[in-house]
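name: query_chain
kind: protein
chains: 1
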Amino acid sequence: MVRFNEAVDQALAQSIVSYSERADLTRELFLAVLGHDLRSPLANVAMVGEMLTRADLARDQVHALGMRTTRSARFMKHMVDDLLGYTRVQMGKGIPTTPAPCDVGAALRAAVTDAGATFPAASFELTLDGDTHGEFDSIRLQQLVTNLLVNAVQHGGVGSPVRVQAHGKPHSLVIRVTNYGKPIRAAACELIFQPLVQLPADETEDDGSHSTSLGLGLYIAREIAQAHAGTIGVTSSETTGTTFEVVLPRASQAPGKP
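structure:
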């Protein structure tokens, strides 16, 4: 019994040390990613502030600088929204949802507008088919689709449009977001919905100037889909592009979380 108790104590001690090391590693990785991805928009804001102190700026230059600052603010807003969602899930509270009758088409149009303001050079094509009404949290669905659009722009081919489709079925609604960048490896398709996961540079066409990703956007999108009792998946190939598909039951099967 003494040896058994000693073995149990040793196992518990090793487990605590292992858990602590993993927690430390996750925290350090999180802070490193946050610092890296905030650096670019903050540098933009600082540069605009310095330029605005000059007295010889023309009106069109002031307008351009204002738009640049707005885009940087949007980048940081996406990061903060993802951070808040991630924190809530990690605390066990989940993504709060308040399902109510709504038109998903309106949420998709708002998401396209938001993504277009963040990436003015990107092109989006929205197609709505069938009845797009149902019982959903429209604000959360807009956040879900916005995250998918941001991801699609970051990893899509230069000059290729991002296609957004919503198809209403009798008992469900299907949302698809497609880009035509480099395909995602099959092994990576299983990982990208995990938190703090980012594709390596050689698997994306993003040059870094579009980076708003903390490796949380797809994770938050999955949590929102699951909060609606739905699913999200991805398929990727050279010929058909990369498509994220969200399937949501038309009537909420899960109560909203406060």
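note: The first strand starts at residue 100 and ends at 103.
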